[in-house]
């Protein structure tokens, strides 16, 4: 152990500054968001540095995040003060494990978000923290191949397919990029974009004839899609490398492209289908686990996170937009401007068909996503017949809905009791 | 007649053999080094160059990505923790594992096969599943968020290597050697320390290196079991998967370098084995 | 000291250690595999085995191990024997060959993706040399064989060193006299390798093979980096059950399946490469 102590001595000298920060009882902010190193650094340096008392911001992948949290809950004592995660992460948790935040008197400006945050209970389980969405982006080189008469801000799926076909014809390469990689958010495209645009539903219409059309269209789009898409999870990389010219992804997963070469790319709304321009929000929240060692500090941090200035700083750091009413400054990074405009056009479109996040699924949220991912992999990658796959997957979906009793959410028509798969 | 041709052919064949041999060595070295060279190029490239095509095969010596990490708060602290945990893992896995390796090679005892299987099971079951009950145990006992606690988990991962490697090392040393020492008046213990130990010491270093590297590269348990005392891997690597490309490469590079230096520093012990072979 | 008790005394520390830090959590997790709600059930196993991806990921895992491990074994043997007869630069060459030991699978995935991706180094090299007109798509769902080859190459690159170190240590223990004697009797290098090296190397071979096979069934990070969603393996499915689906019962059941496969292969290797007690050198 002499080696150890000697080394510790040397290193301790060097590390005194870092250690000094960590040694105080900082508020531990355990988050699944803002994970990329740059974003995490920005969270620490610009967003959280203004909080009195210091914050230890620790972003983690879902696996370690969940494991650590569950361990603390099981052990009945913990160090995590504040949780930051997506709506889906929270909805999978046992409601008793999250502290009721109703008495804080803070909420987002959106009534929809606030009721989502109750997770089907009568308490505020988490506080909506920040929001984003999925949009389209393209390299300016692709614009000259837009089909005639098509307006990039009001594309239809047919026009998108024609566009990607034109690009392929002209360049000899498939240049549509789709985040179908292991960490890609492909399921959200099906749940919030393709299905609402073609079937005006997600659950009820899962195996409808319109859904068959939707998958046929997607298969057509896929034929012009870069076949390496099954490796793509962050479309900013392929935009920058030129492997893809037209892409669909989460706004924060496109940010780097706009920030690095703002003049080379455009952001625009998702396309529309026969039943409108389907789109979906991304909602992240902050919550306090019941094992938090210092409730007051945790609540103070949450209140700080919801202040307008913090929300704007968070926007700069993470490309997630505020959920409270704020006056946006003019000097925002290019990525924020580009994606903000696209989202505004999308939600302001005459044919807008906004969907909600899946609600009431509890810990079956992952199974719900898997239904869509499996359907995609079987129809598109394995080339199985659409009707048969939908009939198969429909049963799994119906089981999930019955087991959880989750009522329908928009754009599905409301239901009494569990949302039926028709 | 035949003698003459044989003599004439042999030097040619030998020369050809030597060329093939040399070429193979060079090829295999390149096979290992070239991918690492690519990592180096990307680490020393600007973000634009990392995304460019075709790629340059000469590093541009753009230090932007490395500077980003140099300014990253807490790096030194994390590095210190990584080294401490790895060092503890090294010591513990050898101290605990080597006796078992000796027992396996020298004795037939009831339950030996079962014991070997138990040892192997530890590597055949994914750690991320075990991490939850372990974390609960650690939080309850106060081992949570300590270098020692994490080193215990890493030792669990390293022990199969320690036991099996020392087992094959001991198996390679003739038992007659020990028996001879006993007849010369050594006890079992002195025979071991005077005869066997010097012979296998270099090999033990080899398994210590395994332990070090395993601990150094382990992400999941480190991410779950350390909060304030994060290791470098937990600190960097687990968020690296989603970083912009140029930072991904730079971060990967930063993690690779210390491991390379460590192996380089101890390579003498690792391969001092030839001393024995010449006995 | 009592010679009958000595072995138990020697394995006591490991046993105690593993009981606390492996067996205890392992039993807790395994229990989950057999429970659903309250009672004992095999339902979890049925669930995971009936999912359409299970046969595919099982096949992929086995196939990858079947291709990668023999190549690694041959390569490691070749490297070890070459190093053994090297006179100059042995230290340096061995150091270079063991470098991949220090590289984590996550980092290896990053490195090999940079080589095989569409705008990666391999395409840069091929277009640079005029071998291809425009970058090829190596990792596409249309060329599963290419994806498999890329994964296999990366795995061979990353994990051969583990076997090499073990075999090098083992070869170093074979007395030179055996080779000298074999040479006196006119054995060719190939015969010396077959008749001297291989049989005497059995303990090391066994260790190297078992460790490598067990680790091959745990392969994940490199596969995920290169194969994306195209090449599901068992370990990836376990993670997906545990963290995406939050179905720890399913994850535990699948992990036990992997464990069972590992044990089966371990027993086979133990049987085939049986090591005589105390060695016969």
TrEMBL record, chain A:
Q: Tell me which positions the record assigns to the signal sequence.
A: 1-25
- Family from the record: Belongs to the bacterial solute-binding protein 1 family.
Q: Where in the cell is it found?
A: Periplasm
Q: Decide whether keyword Membrane is in the record.
A: yes
One Pfam family matching this protein: SBP_bac_8
The organism encoding this protein is: Poseidonocella sedimentorum
Designated name of the protein: Carbohydrate ABC transporter substrate-binding protein, CUT1 family
Supply the InterPro entries for this chain: Bact_solute-bd_prot1 (IPR050490), SBP (IPR006059)
- GO CC aspect terms: periplasmic space
User: Any coiled-coil ranges, and where?
Assistant: none
Write out the entry's keywords from A to Z: Cell membrane, Lipoprotein, Membrane, Palmitate, Signal
UniProtKB/TrEMBL annotation, chain B:
The record describes its membrane topology as: Multi-pass membrane protein
* GO (cellular component) term, any one: plasma membrane
Query: Transmembrane ranges?
Result: 19-40, 84-105, 117-139, 151-170, 191-216, 245-266
- Asked if Cell membrane is a keyword of the record, the answer is yes
Query: Which PROSITE patterns did the record assign?
Result: ABC_TM1
**Which residue intervals define the domain ABC transmembrane type-1 in the entry?**
79-266
Question: What biological-process GO terms show up in the record?
Answer: transmembrane transport
Keywords from UniProt, A to Z, are: Cell membrane, Membrane, Transmembrane, Transmembrane helix, Transport
Can you say where in the cell this protein is located? Cell membrane
Q: Into which family does the record put it?
A: Belongs to the binding-protein-dependent transport system permease family.
Protein's name in the database? Carbohydrate ABC transporter membrane protein 2, CUT1 family
Please give the organism: Poseidonocella sedimentorum
UniProtKB/TrEMBL annotation, chain C:
Q: Which residues form the ABC transmembrane type-1 domain?
A: 58-269
One term under GO cellular component: plasma membrane
Sorted UniProt keywords: Cell membrane, Membrane, Transmembrane, Transmembrane helix, Transport
Supply the Gene3D superfamilies for this chain.
MetI-like
Membrane topology (UniProt): Multi-pass membrane protein
> Which locations, inside or outside the cell, does it occupy?
Cell membrane
Which superkingdom?
Bacteria
The UniProt transmembrane annotation reads: 7-27, 62-80, 92-115, 145-174, 209-231, 251-273
Q: What PROSITE patterns is this protein classified in?
A: ABC_TM1 (PS50928)
What the entry lists under CDD domains is as follows: TM_PBP2
Q: Name one GO biological process term.
A: transmembrane transport
Q: Enumerate the PANTHER family for this protein.
A: ABC TRANSPORTER PERMEASE PROTEIN, INNER MEMBRANE ABC TRANSPORTER PERMEASE PROTEIN YCJO
Q: What is this protein called?
A: Carbohydrate ABC transporter membrane protein 1, CUT1 family
| Organism in which the protein naturally occurs | Poseidonocella sedimentorum
């Amino acid at each position: 152990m002499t080696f150890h102590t000697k080394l510790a001595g040397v290193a301790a000298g060097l590390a005194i500054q870092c250690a000094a920060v960590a040694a105080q009882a900082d508020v531990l902010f355990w988050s699944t968001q803002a994970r990329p190193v740059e974003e995490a650094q920005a969270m620490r340096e610009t967003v959280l540095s203004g909080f009195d008392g210091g914050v230890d911001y620790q972003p983690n992948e879902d696996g370690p995040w969940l494991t650590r949290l569950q361990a603390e809950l099981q052990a009945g004592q913990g160090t995590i003060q504040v949780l930051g995660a997506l709506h889906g992460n929270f909805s999978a948790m046992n409601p008793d494990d999250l502290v009721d935040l109703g008495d804080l008197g803070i909420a987002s400006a959106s009534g929809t978000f606030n009721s989502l945050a109750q997770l089907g209970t009568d308490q505020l389980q988490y506080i909506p923290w920040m929001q984003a969405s999925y949009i389209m982006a393209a390299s300016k080189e692709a614009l000259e191949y837009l089909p005639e008469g098509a307006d990039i801000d009001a594309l239809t799926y047919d026009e998108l397919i024609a566009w990607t076909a034109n690009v392929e014809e002209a360049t000899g390469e498939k240049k549509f990029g789709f985040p179908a990689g292991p960490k890609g958010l492909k399921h959200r495209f099906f749940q919030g974009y393709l299905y609402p645009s073609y079937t005006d539903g997600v659950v009820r219409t899962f195996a409808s004839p319109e859904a068959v059309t939707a998958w046929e269209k997607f298969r057509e789009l896929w034929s012009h899609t870069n076949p390496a898409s099954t490796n793509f999870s962050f479309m900013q990389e392929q935009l920058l490398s030129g492997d893809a010219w037209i892409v669909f992804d989460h706004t924060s997963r496109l940010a780097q492209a706009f920030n690095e070469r703002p003049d080379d790319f455009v952001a625009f709304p998702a396309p529309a289908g026969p039943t409108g321009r389907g789109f979906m929000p991304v909602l992240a929240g902050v919550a306090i686990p019941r094992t938090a060692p210092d409730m007051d500090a945790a609540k103070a941090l949450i209140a700080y996170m919801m202040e307008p200035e913090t929300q704007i700083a968070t926007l700069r750091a993470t490309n997630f937009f505020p959920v409270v009413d704020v006056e946006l400054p003019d000097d925002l990074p290019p990525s924020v401007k580009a994606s903000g405009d696209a989202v505004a056009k999308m939600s302001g479109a005459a044919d807008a068909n906004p969907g909600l996040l899946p609600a009431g699924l509890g810990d079956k949220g992952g199974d719900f996503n898997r239904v869509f991912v499996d359907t995609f992999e079987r129809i598109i990658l394995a080339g199985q017949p659409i009707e048969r796959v939908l009939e198969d997957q429909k049963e799994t979906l119906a089981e999930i809905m019955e087991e959880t009793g989750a009522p329908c959410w928009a754009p599905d028509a409301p239901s009494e009791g569990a949302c039926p798969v028709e | 007649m035949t003698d003459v041709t044989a003599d004439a052919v042999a030097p040619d064949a030998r020369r050809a053999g030597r060329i093939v041999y040399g070429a193979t060595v060079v090829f295999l070295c390149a096979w290992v080094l070239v991918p690492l060279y690519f990592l180096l190029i990307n680490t020393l490239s600007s973000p634009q160059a990392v995304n460019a095509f075709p790629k340059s095969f000469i590093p541009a010596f753009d230090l932007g990505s490395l500077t980003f990490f140099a300014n990253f708060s807490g790096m030194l602290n994390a590095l210190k923790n990584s080294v401490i945990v790895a060092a503890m893992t090294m010591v513990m896995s050898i101290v605990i594992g080597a006796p078992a390796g000796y027992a396996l090679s020298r004795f037939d005892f009831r339950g030996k096969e079962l014991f070997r299987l138990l040892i192997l099971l530890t590597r055949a079951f994914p750690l991320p599943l075990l991490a939850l009950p372990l974390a609960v145990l650690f939080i309850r006992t106060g081992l949570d968020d300590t270098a020692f606690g994490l080193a215990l988990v890493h030792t669990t991962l390293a022990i199969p290597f320690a036991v099996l490697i020392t087992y094959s090392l001991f198996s390679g040393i003739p038992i007659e050697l020990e028996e001879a020492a006993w007849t010369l008046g050594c006890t079992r213990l002195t025979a071991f320390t005077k005869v066997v130990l010097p012979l296998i010491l270099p090999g033990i270093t080899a398994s210590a290196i395994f332990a070090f590297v395993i601990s150094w590269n382990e992400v999941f348990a480190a991410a779950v079991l350390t909060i304030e005392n994060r290791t470098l891997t937990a600190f960097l690597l687990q968020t690296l998967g989603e970083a912009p490309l140029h930072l991904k490469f730079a971060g990967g590079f930063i993690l690779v370098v210390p491991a390379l230096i460590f192996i380089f520093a101890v390579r003498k012990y690792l391969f001092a084995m030839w001393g024995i072979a010449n006995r | 000291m009592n010679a009958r008790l000595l072995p138990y005394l020697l394995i006591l520390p490991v046993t105690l250690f593993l009981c606390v830090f492996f067996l205890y959590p392992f039993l807790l997790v395994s229990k989950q595999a057999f429970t659903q709600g309250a009672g004992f059930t095999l339902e979890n196993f049925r669930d995971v085995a009936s999912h359409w991806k299970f046969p595919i990921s099982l096949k992929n895992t086995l196939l990858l191990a079947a291709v990668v491990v023999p190549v690694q074994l041959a390569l490691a043997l070749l490297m070890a024997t070459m190093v053994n007869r090297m006179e100059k630069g042995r230290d340096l060459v061995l150091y270079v060959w063991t470098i991949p030991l220090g590289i984590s699978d996550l980092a290896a995935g990053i490195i090999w993706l940079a080589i095989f991706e569409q705008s990666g180094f391999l395409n840069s090299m091929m277009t640079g040399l005029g071998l291809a007109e425009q970058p090829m798509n190596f990792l596409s769902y249309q060329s599963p064989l290419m994806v498999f080859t890329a994964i296999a190459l990366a795995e061979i690159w990353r994990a051969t060193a583990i076997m090499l170190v073990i075999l090098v240590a083992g070869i170093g223990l074979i007395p030179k006299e055996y080779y000298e004697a074999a040479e006196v009797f006119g054995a060719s290098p190939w015969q010396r390798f077959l008749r001297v090296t291989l049989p005497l190397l059995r303990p090391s071979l066994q260790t190297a093979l078992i460790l490598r096979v067990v680790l091959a069934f745990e392969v994940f990070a490199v596969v995920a980096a290169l194969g994306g969603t195209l090449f599901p393996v068992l370990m990836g499915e376990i993670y997906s059950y545990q963290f995406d689906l939050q179905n720890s019962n399913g994850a535990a059941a699948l992990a036990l399946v992997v464990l069972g496969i590992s044990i089966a292969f371990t027993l086979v290797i133990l049987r085939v490469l049986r090591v005589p007690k105390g060695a016969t050198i």
